[in-house]
Task: structure prediction
Amino acid sequence: MHKGSCLCGAIDIEVAGDLPEADACHCSQCRKQSGHYWASIDVPTSAVTINGEDHIRWYQSSEKVRRGFCDTCGAFLFWDPLHHDTIAIAMGCFDQPTGTNIWSHIFVADKGDYYEIEEGVLQRDR
Ligand SMILES: [Zn+2]
Result:
């Protein structure tokens, strides 16, 4: 089991089992919401326990996706595809050691022009 939280601690997250490998998303929506690119893991919603759920505010960023953040500290924690039984959780919220790593960079065509992605890591346009 792995634990995480938002910055202020109003929202606690527990994920059962090992954390899967993470993606770093460079799309403009993730960059604007997070302030840089956004690393997350996709996990089955059934593996996730949230305490303080009433502190999550949801921003519907498209017809099929909502993005969750803390109503107190603003931590961007969740990317929730509404019609799937998985949810993406921000890597930055987890207590260490996480036991995982970033295995791919996605939406690299949309990345910011002020940084480079390291060589040797999988990069995908979507
Ligand atoms: Zn918070």
The CA atoms of residues 49 and 111 lie 32 Å apart.
